[in-house]
Amino acid sequence: MGDHRERLRAALRRDDGSVSLELAIVFPVLLLIVVALLQYGLWFHARTLAQAAAAEGATAARTQGAVLDDGRTRAEAFLAEHAGDLVLDSAVSVTAPSPGHVAVEVRGRSLSLLPLVPGPQIVQSAQGPVERFTTPGEP
Length: 139
Fold this sequence. Notes:
three-stranded antiparallel β-sheet; 139 residues; 53% helix
């Protein structure tokens, strides 16, 4: 009977620290998953802001009598007002891919959670026809 108890105690002593070892293996994986989810959320939000800025710029550039620079100014103002530090190194380009159409492209980077690691790149665009008055029977 005493021999059985000693064997049980010896077996229990061999498991000392096993929980700490398991946590040392699992915790970094869980931390990596949390950081990846947070980084994805920052990227998605920055992407949404860039898309909204491109749409605002396209709306301003499509207005009858507007010039392409009006779209760039409006998109940059939207980013300055709403994006803050969420969209880094932003650049806005406005082009006329064909007569009567405008396209606005917003490029930048998302904020990064890791120091010295640049955030994911963002490229969003919006386009549409330039507004104009027409008369019945004319294109």
